[in-house]
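Incident log, support desk, overnight shift.

02:14 A customer reports that sequence design results differ from what the structure should imply. Their input is reproduced verbatim below. On-call engineer (initials T.W.) acknowledged and began investigating.
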């Protein structure tokens, strides 16, 4: 089963929910015309379906491998990567001063969705490079930008982030990797683990962003600095120099994403790897968060992407698999399983969840553009706060949902879903890492309540709740039972989210343990409530377009029905979480460790 980009829904989410016209009107985005956006989407869809998707299963079966110290990617990957570079696909959202195309992050997010749906194991290298570019562009010196960004933006070089070490996991304050000053550079020594695309055979150089500790640095996160450590050093003339003191010790044998090499990296076997300080000593973690936040948004998009791939495969199977009679008909003849109620329930759950994720993900990407480009400083600040709030929700809710949707994909296949030949199992295996990397979803929930809500007492989220209620007022004036049911559900969600947010804001400082115990429930409520909001927004627009005969009625009607399904059947799972969220602290810590 191949992949076909859902362009109709992508365009709808871009234009009618995320506000592409407003984003394209921002300073610097003059080239993002409707014609240009459509051309980019069409060409990306062709490349995703025609070149990336056919290598997805082969990459899973063959996997990456380490041969004589060199990581070899699956057959076809180097040629495919060359095609991506020659097509300029890596440069889409970046500054033209470094060879970028200056397109909105909103458009780049839609394109990224296609790459990740088509071949996640391959596309991870694109995602990581994008984040590394963003970090250097924000925090690197002018000389570092000129030295590294042009070839990273083009894709000739790729970037990584090196955070985790064997003893530290997510606790970066315990990092031991050392950086000793040596003239105009530092010598880096130590080991990093779980480094995605830490080495590969698709680009001539790899630019590692490495967190390390200088000898006199204080303990904890305040002692961490950020360094650029290239695989191949750059000569004074900008050409390739000698190989740096960096090597791959091994690659991990993983549950999924076999095509993506996850490396154990060793720095400084022979005196120290040459590294260049980014910014100031001791501020490395704050700098790295630029890359991490970029990556967290895109990992959320990966959750959406793998869900879409699983849905397309399950839908095709359900349409063709004939089994059992139609319970609503007298005939005993077998029918395609898409006619069975439970299969239809699962497909609707997949479809509604995916469309909610897509709309909310694009909404978050639009906030990125507003925070970067809006001419009014206060509007930029407001957009940045909204983006900061959305990042943990998008990362965690999307990746949890990606696992749930891929599991439904296996279920729809029945026994055939458990057999590797169908490909349904690969999607679930590939999805399983997403709630773990770039900060586990528990860390995202902690970030949401202990940082984002605590920072402003929940005011940023209350502004979103106000938007939900304003949309409810608009829906009240719209015709049709479906829209009124959507309105009722949306207002119920707004009330539940307001109640929950007030509780979190009131308790996060004085009872942090109890608040954290319920934080995962709170984050899921946020995801489902905001998912309902963006679907309701789309449903209202679809209704207006139907009345004015503007667009495909079949597609527009499906937007309304899908939004109602989400509101009727999935949203109540979120509003029901308010009580468990408040109650969790009473029992989560009640047992002693010995009682487990």
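02:41 Re-run completed on a clean worker. Output:
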């Amino acid at each position: 089963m191949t992949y076909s980009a859902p362009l109709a829904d992508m365009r709808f989410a871009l234009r009618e929910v995320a506000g592409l016209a407003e984003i394209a009107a921002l300073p610097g985005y003059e080239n993002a015309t409707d014609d240009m956006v459509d051309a980019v989407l069409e060409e990306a869809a062709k490349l995703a379906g025609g070149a990336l998707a056919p290598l997805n299963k082969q990459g899973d079966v063959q996997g990456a491998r380490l041969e004589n110290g060199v990581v070899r990617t699956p057959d076809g990957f180097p040629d495919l990567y060359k095609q991506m570079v020659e097509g300029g696909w890596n440069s889409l959202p970046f500054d033209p001063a470094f060879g970028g195309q200056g397109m909105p992050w909103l458009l780049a997010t839609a394109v990224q969705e296609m790459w990740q749906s088509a071949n996640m194991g391959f596309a991870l290298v694109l995602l990581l490079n994008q984040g590394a570019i963003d970090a250097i562009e924000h925090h690197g010196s002018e000389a570092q930008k000129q030295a590294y960004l042009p070839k990273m933006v083009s894709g000739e070089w790729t970037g990584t982030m090196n955070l985790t070490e064997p003893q530290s996991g997510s606790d970066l304050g315990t990092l031991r990797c050392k950086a000793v000053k040596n003239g105009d550079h530092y010598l880096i020594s130590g080991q990093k683990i779980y480094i995605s695309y830490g080495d590969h055979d698709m680009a001539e150089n790899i630019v590692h962003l490495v967190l390390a500790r200088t000898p006199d640095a204080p303990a904890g996160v305040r002692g961490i600095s950020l360094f650029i450590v290239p695989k191949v050093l750059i000569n004074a003339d900008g050409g390739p120099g000698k190989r740096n003191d960096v090597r791959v010790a091994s690659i991990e044998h993983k549950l999924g994403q076999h095509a993506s090499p996850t490396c154990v990296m060793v720095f400084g076997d022979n005196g120290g790897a040459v590294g260049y300080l980014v910014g100031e000593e001791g501020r490395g973690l704050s700098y790295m968060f630029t890359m991490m936040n970029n990556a967290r948004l895109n990992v959320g998009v990966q959750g959406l992407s793998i869900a879409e791939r699983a849905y397309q495969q399950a839908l095709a199977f359900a349409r063709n698999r004939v089994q059992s009679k139609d319970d609503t008909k007298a005939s005993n003849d077998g029918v395609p399983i898409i006619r069975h109620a439970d299969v239809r329930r699962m497909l609707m759950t997949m479809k509604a969840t995916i469309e909610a994720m897509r709309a909310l993900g694009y909404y978050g990407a639009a906030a990125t553009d507003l925070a970067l480009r809006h001419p009014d400083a206060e509007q930029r600040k407001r957009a940045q706060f909204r983006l900061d709030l959305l990042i943990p929700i998008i990362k965690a809710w999307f990746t949890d949902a990606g696992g749930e949707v891929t599991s439904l994909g296996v279920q729809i296949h029945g026994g055939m879903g458990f057999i590797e030949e169908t490909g349904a199992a690969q999607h679930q295996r590939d999805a399983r890492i997403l709630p773990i990397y770039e900060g586990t979803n528990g860390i995202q929930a902690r970030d949401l309540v202990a940082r984002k809500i605590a920072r402003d007492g929940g005011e940023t989220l209350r502004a979103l709740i106000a938007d939900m209620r304003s949309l409810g007022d608009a829906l009240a004036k719209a015709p049709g039972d479906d829209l009124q049911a959507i309105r009722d559900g949306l207002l119920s969600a707004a009330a539940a989210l307001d109640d929950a947010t007030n509780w979190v804001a009131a308790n996060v400082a004085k009872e942090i343990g109890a608040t954290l115990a319920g934080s995962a429930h709170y984050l899921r409520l946020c995801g489902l409530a905001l998912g309902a909001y963006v679907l309701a927004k789309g449903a209202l627009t679809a209704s207006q377009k139907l009345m004015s005969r503007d667009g495909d009625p079949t597609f527009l009607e499906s937007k309304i029905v899908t939004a109602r399904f989400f509101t009727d059947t999935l949203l109540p799972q979120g509003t029901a979480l308010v009580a468990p969220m408040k109650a969790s602290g009473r029992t989560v810590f009640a047992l002693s460790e010995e009682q487990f």
